Amino acid sequence: MASKASGRWLVLAIPYLWLLALFLIPFLIVFKISLSQDAIAQPPYFPTFDLAEGWTTFKEAFSELSFENYGYVLSWDNEFIEAYGSSLWIAGVSTLLLLLVGYPIAYGMARAPKSIRPTLLMLVILPFWTSFLIRVYAWIGILSPEGLLNQLLFALGIVDRDSPLQILATDTAVYIGIVYSYLPFMILPLYSALEKMDETLLEAAADLGCPPLIAFWKITWPLSLPGVFAGCLLCFIPAVGEFVIPDLLGGSDTLMIGKVLWTEFSVNRSWTVSSAVAVLLLMVLVIPIVFYQNIQAREVEGR
Amino acid sequence: MRKGLSWFNVTSITLGFAFLYIPIILLVIYSFNASRMVTVWAGFSTHWYVQLFQNQQLLDAAWVTLRVAFLTATVATVLGTLAAIALTRYGRFFGRTLFSGMVYAPLVMPEVITGLSLLLLFVAIDIDRGFWTITLAHITFTLCFVSVVVQSRLVTFDRSLEEAALDLGCPPFKTFFVVTLPIILPAVISGWMLAFTLSLDDLVIASFTTGPGATTLPMRIYSQVRLGVTPEINAACTILIGIVTVVVIVASIMTKRQEIEREKAERLAAAG
What we know:
heterodimer, A: mainly alpha, 14 helices, 0% strand, globular, B: mainly alpha, 11 helices
């Protein structure tokens, strides 16, 4: 019996300790550095904790805390606020576009014959298994001024050869990149919500004389809302922190917080400010998660 | 009305899949282009593949990436499976909320934050950054994905099988390997594959946690891509796409066959 208990204890302790050491503690370090002043936190940074001295070190460490970095990041005259705003905007617009593009696909899949559904599902997941970087890179060849899209438009005579469409290095390219890369994340939850739906409800509505569009709006859409929320959250949160897509497809004026954090960290080498940017970014993201959990909790209660 | 709807469905599926696949197909086609330009098709050529296999830097990066991914997937699968067992079987325990929070948080945590925090940890404890720090970082963020996949299998699992084994005097450790593991194996394997591809694919976390001497393939591709389109990268990408496609198709056939076998066995057991 003793061995059973110790086995149980080990199963829990191994992943627990791993996550404490490599997930929680690193984050606490970020938090601590975000409250330090640059002079003490200039790289290489060493924590000043000396546990042997006990309480006094804690008190000392506490007195050293400074909210200067947050003040700096949150002051109106710098690019950080703008970057947070434009990240939220780009992520929001992309999520909306994803919903518009993904919903018909998920709907079509859920209404497809049962025998081909697994194949369709697999075809949606397959691009997700190929490298994200490759998929973003593929769009450079398509969207650049001498790229394939412009070639096609030249050949069709829609666009003049001397003035190709400038899509690469604009926000449009960033939207295309995000929609393309995140589409499976939107389709899968929508599909699983739509697939579960009882089709006899629609038949009943049709029998009672309800036109299909109204039936969709009154029956299908509300029933798919859990999938809509899950899909939007799955796309919105990583999109806010996105760094690779705006860097490769966006222009120099495309401002996103992930890119700003990277620049602040690797070019300006200000570890304290980038830590503060990270903490604030996380706080911005916690809001939609809490919101979503509330909705879910309410749903569970409703049942 | 029925007909109109299905016409709509066919169109949306076709357009959606065209959107998903055309960029990838174009990339593959242009990796065989003789010309350096994307704009001109100068005939079929495997020139860029030859060039690729002479690019020592890219090959070194690919080797580092594969080693990291293999180690990551293996350790993350063990840790993730343990975490899944603890979360589905242990009921309440001290610090459960914290534990499940830590298991799920990396799923939604932006990569820049994970990368930054791990880098600051590695600097704080002053260890040399490179192969091992990338691997530690990758294990940490992939184990959560493994745990979610394995948990979905564990919750639908018939516990009476385990209880029967325990009642018959099988030690818990052995019960796990003889009863539990074979049943959850498909989920464990797909968790391993998920961790493997996530690690292969990761650019941001690897860039933060690496040091001199360990450059992964995505980092190498990224730095070349920023300088402009090079057909060599098209060739490298095509090979990667080919490998992934084959692995995924083989895996799905295998899991399908396993499902069928299992159903057969269950039917036999029920009949017997």
